[in-house]
C-alpha cells in the first residue's frame, strides 16, 4: 500500500508539473524571441554581458600593446582614442552594470520564493534595448567611426566643433538606448523585491543579497537619469545647435561634468554593491555560519547608497570649484569609507568565527578582500584634495579605479558564477582549472595595476597613446603590459573551464554547497516557474532550517498550486511584513517587447543618420506599440483569462486598489523626477555660474500660457480625486466622464504649451537661457500629451468594461502620472517665470 501511494504521489506530482509547464513553458524557434521568463532573460543578460566583456578585454590588450614600449607605432592617435573610449564604454556600460542586473534578474525571484519578476515584459524590453544599443555602439568601431572623446565624453572636446563626425553621436544615442534597459531593470527589481516575496518573509528576514540589489536598483532609478539628460542635451547641441555647453552663448562645459558625475560616482557603488552582496551571500555558506552583523551590514549598505549621491565633485577637484565645496566633497568622500568598513569587518568576523572551505569560489572571495581593501586605501588618498591635485589625470588614478572596479566587481562576480554554475548546467566545474585561472588572474592583475601606481607617481599622464624613452616609464609599462597578458590567459582558462564543464563536469546534485537560500530549493537547472508551490518563509536561512523544503515545494505541499485557470501567478505581499495581500497575475510570452525595442532601435539609427522623417515615424510607432502593450492589462481577457480564485485565497491584484502597477508607476516617476530635477539643476547652475549667461530684455514666451495650463490642471485635480475616492469604495459612477474630461484637459494643456514653444521670441539656438526653457516646455508638453492619451484610453476601457468598481486598479495608476504633471507644471512656472525676477535674474 505504501508503494502504491508513493507511485500515485509521483504520478500526481508529474501531472502537476506538466500542467505548470503548459502555462509557463518557453517556446522554441523564432517564438523564443517572445520569452519573458526571468530565468531565460537573466541568462541572456549574462551571456550577452560576457560577450561584451570579451570584446572589452581585446580592446584593453590593444591599449597595453601600444603602451608596452616608448614610441610604439602599433596604433596611431586616432585609433588609440577610439579603442580607449570604447574600452571604457564597453566595460562600464555594456558589461559591469548589465551583468550585475542580469544576475539579479535571474536570482531575485528564486531567492525570494517567487515565480517571476513582477513586470516580465519590462524585463524583456530591457534586454532587447541592451542588446541593440550595445551592438549599435560596438558597430561604430568596425565602421571606423567609434567615439573618440573618452568614455566620459567631456565637453567641449565632444562638441560638434571639436568632434564633427558621427563618432560622438554613436556614444550619445547608443548609451541613452542602453540606459533605458538599466532603468527598466531597476524599476523591475525594486518593485519585485518589495512586493513579490514569499509569504512571511518580512523585510528583516530577506536574504542579504536582496538588500544589496534593492539598494542598487534604487540607485539606478535615481542615478542614471542625469546621464540620460546630459546625453540628450549634448545631442541636441550637436544636432540642432542648442548651446547648453558653449560659453559664448551662455552655456558652460562644466555642466556636462556635473551631470555626468551625478551619474558616474553612484555608478561606482551601483557596480560594487551587488558584488558585495555576492560576498555577503557566499561567505556564510563557505564558513558554515550566518553572516556576522546582518543588521549593521544592511544599515551600511543603505548608508552607502545615500552618501554616494553626495560625492560627484570628488572627480572635479581640479576644475576650479570653490574651496568650501572642495572641503565638503573631500569629507564626504572619506565618510563613505565608514559604511564600507562595516561590511569588510563583518566579512572578516564571519571568516574568523567560521570554518572556511577553500573551494574555487572562496579563493576569489579572499582575492577580492585583498584587492578591494588596497583600492579603498588609494581611494581615501584621492579624497585628499592636495594629493588629488598631484596625481589627477595620471596612471595612479587608472590603477585606483581598476583596483576598485575589478577587485570590487570582477572577483566577486567570478566567485558567484562558480557558485551558481550548477544552476545553469546542473554540473560542477573543475577545481583544478578554476584554481589555475584564479592564480593567473590574481598575479597578472597585480602585475598590471600595482605597478601602475608607481608609473602615475612618476608623472605619466593617462589617455596618452605614446611616450618618450628616458622618462622612467619604460620598464613599469612593459611590466604592466606583460601582467595584462598573464591576466588574460587566466581569464581564458576560466572560459575554458566554463565551456568544458557543460560536457565533462560531474553532476552537482541538489544544493551542492549546503547553501541556506531559496534558489537552491529549485530543480537544477530550474523550471520556468521556479516552484510548483509557494512555501511560507519566516527564517533568513530557510534551507538550513528545513533542508527538505525544496522537495516539499516540488511535491506541491504548499500554496498556490492551482493552474487550470491558465494564469501565471505569484504572491503579492505587504512590503514590510511579508503578509499576503493579493495574487499577482503575470503576463505571458509576447512579441510586443521585441517589436518595441526594434522600433526604438530604428529611432536611434535614424537619428544617427539624420533621417528625421524616419525618426519621427519610428518614434510614433514606438509609442503605438507601447500603448498596445498597455492595453493587455488588468481585467483584459488575455491578462486574466479567468478571474476566479480559490475560496481561501486573496483576490487578483487587478481587482484591488494596490497592485504592483501602482508601485511600478511610482518608482518610474521617481526616475522621471530625477531627470527633471537634473534639468532644473542645469537651469540654476547656468543661471548662477555660467560666465556669459545672457538674459533677454523681454520675455521669450507668453508666461500666461504656462500659468493657465498649470491652473487648468490644478482645477481638474479635486474632481479626479473625488471620483477616484468613490472608485476605491467600489462605486464607478462618473468614472467615464472623468476620464473623458481629463483627456480633454491633457490635450488643452498640451496645446497651450505648444503655442508657448512656437513663440517667435524664443531663440533656443542663440542663447543657452532660451535653450533650457525650450527643453523644459518640451518636457511638459510631452507629458501633458501622454497624460491626455492615457486618460482617453482609460475612458475607452471603462466603456468596454475592463475598468469598473470591481476592477478599479488602472485609473489609480494613471492618476499618479497626473499628480506628477501637476507638480512639474508648477515647479517649471516658479523656476523659469517667478524666481529669476525675484532674485534679479531677469
TrEMBL record:
<feature type="transmembrane region" description="Helical">
    <location>
        <begin position="478"/>
        <end position="500"/>
    </location>
</feature>
<feature type="transmembrane region" description="Helical">
    <location>
        <begin position="771"/>
        <end position="796"/>
    </location>
</feature>
<feature type="transmembrane region" description="Helical">
    <location>
        <begin position="817"/>
        <end position="839"/>
    </location>
</feature>
<dbReference type="InterPro" id="IPR000298">
    <property type="entry name" value="Cyt_c_oxidase-like_su3"/>
</dbReference>
<keyword id="KW-0186">Copper</keyword>
<dbReference type="InterPro" id="IPR036927">
    <property type="entry name" value="Cyt_c_oxase-like_su1_sf"/>
</dbReference>
<feature type="transmembrane region" description="Helical">
    <location>
        <begin position="211"/>
        <end position="234"/>
    </location>
</feature>
<dbReference type="GO" id="GO:0020037">
    <property type="term" value="F:heme binding"/>
</dbReference>
<dbReference type="InterPro" id="IPR023616">
    <property type="entry name" value="Cyt_c_oxase-like_su1_dom"/>
</dbReference>
<keyword id="KW-0472">Membrane</keyword>
<keyword id="KW-0479">Metal-binding</keyword>
<dbReference type="InterPro" id="IPR035973">
    <property type="entry name" value="Cyt_c_oxidase_su3-like_sf"/>
</dbReference>
<keyword id="KW-0813">Transport</keyword>
<keyword id="KW-0812">Transmembrane</keyword>
<feature type="transmembrane region" description="Helical">
    <location>
        <begin position="294"/>
        <end position="315"/>
    </location>
</feature>
<feature type="transmembrane region" description="Helical">
    <location>
        <begin position="83"/>
        <end position="108"/>
    </location>
</feature>
<feature type="transmembrane region" description="Helical">
    <location>
        <begin position="268"/>
        <end position="287"/>
    </location>
</feature>
<feature type="transmembrane region" description="Helical">
    <location>
        <begin position="591"/>
        <end position="608"/>
    </location>
</feature>
<dbReference type="GO" id="GO:0022904">
    <property type="term" value="P:respiratory electron transport chain"/>
</dbReference>
<dbReference type="GO" id="GO:0006119">
    <property type="term" value="P:oxidative phosphorylation"/>
</dbReference>
<keyword id="KW-1133">Transmembrane helix</keyword>
<feature type="transmembrane region" description="Helical">
    <location>
        <begin position="433"/>
        <end position="458"/>
    </location>
</feature>
<protein>
    <recommendedName>
        <fullName>cytochrome-c oxidase</fullName>
        <ecNumber>7.1.1.9</ecNumber>
    </recommendedName>
</protein>
<feature type="transmembrane region" description="Helical">
    <location>
        <begin position="327"/>
        <end position="350"/>
    </location>
</feature>
<dbReference type="InterPro" id="IPR023615">
    <property type="entry name" value="Cyt_c_Oxase_su1_BS"/>
</dbReference>
<dbReference type="GO" id="GO:0005886">
    <property type="term" value="C:plasma membrane"/>
</dbReference>
<keyword id="KW-1278">Translocase</keyword>
<feature type="domain" description="Heme-copper oxidase subunit III family profile">
    <location>
        <begin position="580"/>
        <end position="838"/>
    </location>
</feature>
<feature type="domain" description="Cytochrome oxidase subunit I profile">
    <location>
        <begin position="30"/>
        <end position="538"/>
    </location>
</feature>
<feature type="transmembrane region" description="Helical">
    <location>
        <begin position="740"/>
        <end position="759"/>
    </location>
</feature>
<keyword id="KW-1003">Cell membrane</keyword>
<feature type="transmembrane region" description="Helical">
    <location>
        <begin position="701"/>
        <end position="719"/>
    </location>
</feature>
<keyword id="KW-0408">Iron</keyword>
<feature type="transmembrane region" description="Helical">
    <location>
        <begin position="170"/>
        <end position="191"/>
    </location>
</feature>
<keyword id="KW-0679">Respiratory chain</keyword>
<comment type="pathway">
    <text>Energy metabolism; oxidative phosphorylation.</text>
</comment>
<comment type="similarity">
    <text>Belongs to the heme-copper respiratory oxidase family.</text>
</comment>
<dbReference type="GO" id="GO:0015990">
    <property type="term" value="P:electron transport coupled proton transport"/>
</dbReference>
<dbReference type="GO" id="GO:0046872">
    <property type="term" value="F:metal ion binding"/>
</dbReference>
<dbReference type="Pfam" id="PF00115">
    <property type="entry name" value="COX1"/>
</dbReference>
<feature type="transmembrane region" description="Helical">
    <location>
        <begin position="662"/>
        <end position="686"/>
    </location>
</feature>
<keyword id="KW-0249">Electron transport</keyword>
Amino acid at each position: 500500500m505504501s508503494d502504491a501511494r508513493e507511485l500515485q504521489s509521483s504520478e500526481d506530482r508529474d501531472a502537476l508539473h506538466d500542467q505548470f509547464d503548459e502555462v509557463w513553458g518557453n517556446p522554441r524557434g523564432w517564438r523564443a524571441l517572445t520569452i519573458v521568463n526571468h530565468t531565460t532573460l537573466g541568462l541572456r543578460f549574462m551571456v550577452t554581458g560576457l560577450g561584451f566583456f570579451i570584446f572589452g578585454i581585446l580592446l584593453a590588450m590593444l591599449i597595453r600593446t601600444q603602451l608596452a614600449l616608448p614610441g610604439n607605432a602599433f596604433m596611431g592617435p586616432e585609433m588609440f582614442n577610439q579603442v580607449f573610449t570604447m574600452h571604457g564604454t564597453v566595460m562600464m556600460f555594456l558589461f559591469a552594470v548589465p551583468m550585475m542586473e542580469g544576475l539579479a534578474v535571474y536570482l531575485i525571484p528564486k531567492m525570494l520564493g517567487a515565480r517571476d519578476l513582477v513586470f516580465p515584459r519590462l524585463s524583456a524590453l530591457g534586454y532587447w534595448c541592451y542588446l541593440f544599443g550595445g551592438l549599435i555602439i560596438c558597430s561604430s568601431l568596425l565602421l571606423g567611426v567609434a567615439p573618440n572623446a573618452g568614455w566620459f565624453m567631456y565637453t567641449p572636446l565632444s562638441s560638434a566643433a571639436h568632434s564633427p563626425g558621427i563618432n560622438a553621436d554613436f556614444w550619445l544615442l547608443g548609451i541613452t538606448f542602453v540606459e533605458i534597459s538599466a532603468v527598466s531593470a531597476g524599476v523591475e527589481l525594486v518593485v519585485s523585491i518589495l512586493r513579490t516575496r514569499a509569504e512571511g518573509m518580512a523585510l528583516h528576514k530577506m536574504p542579504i543579497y536582496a538588500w544589496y540589489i534593492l539598494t542598487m536598483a534604487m540607485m539606478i532609478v535615481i542615478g542614471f537619469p542625469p546621464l540620460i539628460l546630459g546625453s540628450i542635451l549634448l545631442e541636441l547641441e550637436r544636432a540642432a545647435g542648442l548651446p547648453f555647453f558653449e560659453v559664448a552663448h551662455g552655456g558652460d562645459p562644466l555642466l556636462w561634468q556635473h551631470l555626468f558625475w551625478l551619474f558616474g560616482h553612484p555608478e561606482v557603488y551601483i557596480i560594487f554593491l551587488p558584488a558585495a552582496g555576492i560576498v555577503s551571500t557566499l561567505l556564510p555558506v563557505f564558513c558554515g555560519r550566518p553572516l556576522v552583523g546582518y543588521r549593521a551590514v544592511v544599515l551600511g549598505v543603505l548608508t552607502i547608497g545615500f552618501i554616494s549621491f553626495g560625492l560627484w565633485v570628488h572627480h572635479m577637484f581640479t576644475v576650479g570649484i570653490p574651496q568650501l565645496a572642495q572641503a565638503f566633497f573631500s569629507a564626504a568622500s572619506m565618510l563613505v569609507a565608514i559604511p564600507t568598513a562595516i561590511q569588510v569587518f563583518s566579512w572578516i568576523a564571519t571568516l574568523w568565527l567560521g570554518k572556511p572551505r577553500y573551494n574555487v569560489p572562496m579563493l576569489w572571495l579572499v582575492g577580492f578582500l585583498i584587492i578591494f581593501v588596497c583600492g579603498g586605501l588609494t581611494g581615501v588618498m584621492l579624497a585628499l584634495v592636495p594629493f588629488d591635485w598631484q596625481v589627477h589625470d595620471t596612471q595612479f588614478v587608472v590603477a585606483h579605479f581598476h583596483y576598485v572596479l575589478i577587485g570590487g566587481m570582477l572577483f566577486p562576480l567570478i566567485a558567484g558564477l562558480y557558485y551558481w554554475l550548477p544552476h545553469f548546467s546542473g554540473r560542477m566545474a573543475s577545481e583544478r582549472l578554476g584554481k589555475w585561472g584564479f592564480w593567473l588572474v590574481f598575479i597578472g592583475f597585480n602585475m598590471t595595476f600595482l605597478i601602475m601606481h608607481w608609473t602615475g607617481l612618476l608623472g605619466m599622464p593617462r589617455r596618452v597613446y605614446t611616450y618618450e624613452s628616458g622618462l622612467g616609464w619604460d620598464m613599469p609599462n612593459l611590466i604592466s603590459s606583460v601582467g595584462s597578458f598573464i591576466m588574460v590567459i587566466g581569464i581564458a582558462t576560466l572560459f575554458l573551464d566554463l565551456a568544458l564543464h557543460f560536457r565533462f563536469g560531474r553532476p552537482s546534485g541538489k544544493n551542492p554547497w549546503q547553501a541556506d537560500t531559496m534558489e537552491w530549493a529549485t530543480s537544477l537547472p530550474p523550471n520556468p516557474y521556479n516552484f510548483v508551490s509557494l512555501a511560507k518563509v519566516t527564517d533568513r536561512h530557510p534551507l538550513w532550517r528545513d533542508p527538505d523544503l525544496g522537495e516539499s515545494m516540488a511535491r506541491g505541499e504548499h500554496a498556490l498550486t492551482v493552474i487550470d485557470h491558465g494564469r501565471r501567478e505569484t504572491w503579492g505581499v505587504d512590503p514590510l511584513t511579508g503578509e499576503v495581500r493579493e495574487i499577482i497575475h503575470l503576463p505571458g510570452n509576447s512579441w510586443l517587447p521585441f517589436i518595441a525595442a526594434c522600433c526604438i532601435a530604428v529611432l536611434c539609427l535614424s537619428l544617427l543618420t539624420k533621417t528625421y522623417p524616419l525618426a519621427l515615424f519610428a518614434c510614433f510607432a514606438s509609442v503605438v506599440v507601447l500603448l498596445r502593450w498597455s492595453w493587455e492589462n488588468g481585467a483584459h481577457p488575455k491578462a486574466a483569462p479567468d478571474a476566479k480564485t480559490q475560496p481561501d485565497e486573496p483576490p487578483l491584484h487587478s481587482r484591488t486598489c494596490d497592485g504592483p502597477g501602482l508601485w511600478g508607476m511610482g518608482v518610474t516617476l521617481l526616475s522621471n523626477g530625477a531627470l527633471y530635477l537634473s534639468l532644473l539643476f542645469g537651469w540654476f547652475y547656468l543661471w548662477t555660474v555660467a560666465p556669459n549667461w545672457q538674459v533677454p530684455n523681454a520675455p521669450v514666451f507668453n508666461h500666461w500660457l504656462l500659468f493657465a495650463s498649470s491652473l487648468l490642471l490644478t482645477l481638474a485635480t479635486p474632481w479626479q480625486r473625488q471620483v477616484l475616492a468613490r472608485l476605491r469604495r467600489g462605486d464607478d459612477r462618473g468614472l467615464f466622464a472623468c476620464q473623458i474630461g481629463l483627456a480633454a484637459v491633457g490635450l488643452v494643456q498640451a496645446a497651450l504649451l505648444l503655442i508657448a514653444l512656437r513663440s517667435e521670441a524664443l531663440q533656443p539656438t542663440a542663447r543657452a537661457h532660451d535653450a533650457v526653457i525650450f527643453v523644459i516646455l518640451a518636457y511638459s508638453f510631452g507629458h501633458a500629451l501622454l497624460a491626455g492619451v492615457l486618460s482617453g484610453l482609460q475612458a475607452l476601457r471603462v466603456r468596454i468594461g475592463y475598468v469598473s468598481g470591481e476592477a478599479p486598479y488602472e485609473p489609480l495608476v494613471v492618476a499618479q502620472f497626473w499628480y506628477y504633471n501637476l507638480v512639474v507644471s508648477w515647479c517649471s512656472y516658479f523656476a523659469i517665470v517667478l524666481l529669476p525676477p525675484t532674485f534679479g535674474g531677469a
